[in-house]
Write a structure and sequence with these properties.
single chain, mainly beta, Lipocalin, eight-stranded antiparallel β-barrel, 1 helix, globular
Length: 179
């Protein structure tokens, strides 16, 4: 197979997150606008790499008032920091279990993160396009990226949890020029 270039098929991919609310519940959200490219070699994953750009203003938690607050300077500051980005540094592992290590930038702050990635395989769709699929997970501390707003609860604890669980599902479309 060898190294091949892909674009993220955003119609069949998702970037989601979960964060604790009031200690007792989880709030789920997603970003609706993102793009990215990657190169992947199933036989030698260490040759692979990925770059993703996520539109900060596309955050959607199914509650417009909360989304407005998340776009504000208290959190993502989407007017001044238009994108969240991820750029891989290395890919480790083999088979279906991979680790993608790279730089995640949120609100102008960059930290190295490790994505636990499952390679789901690939094949041709009914129109002859070659596709591959991946699922990825990681957990970050939002305070590491300057998202420090919070409110104490009368019952103890904080309104918004610090840990953010990120879940990504990607379907990649092989570059026709590389086919």
């Amino acid at each position: 197979m060898g190294l091949a270039n892909y674009s993220i098929d955003t119609a069949h991919s998702s970037v989601g997150f979960t964060v604790r609310h009031m200690v007792v519940a989880k709030t789920r959200g997603r970003f609706t606008k993102f793009s990215g490219t990657f190169a992947f070699d199933a036989e030698n994953p260490s040759k692979s790499h990925v770059e993703v750009n996520i539109d900060a203003a596309s955050i959607d938690t199914h509650e417009p008032q909360r989304d407005g607050h998340l776009k504000s300077p208290d959190f993502l500051d989407a007017d001044n920091h238009k994108a969240l980005t991820f750029k891989s540094k290395r890919v480790e592992g083999s088979g279906s279990d991979l680790k993608v290590v790279g730089d995640l930038t949120i609100r102008g702050t960059t930290h190295e993160v490790t994505l636990d990635v499952e390679y789901a395989g690939g094949g041709r769709d009914p129109w002859g396009n070659e596709k591959v699929g991946f699922s990825a997970k990681t957990t970050i501390n939002r305070k590491d990226y300057g998202l420090v707003w919070n409110q104490a609860l009368e019952t103890g604890g904080l309104l918004v949890g610090e840990k953010v669980e990120i879940e990504i599902d990607v379907e990649g479309l092989k570059d026709k020029a590389a086919a």
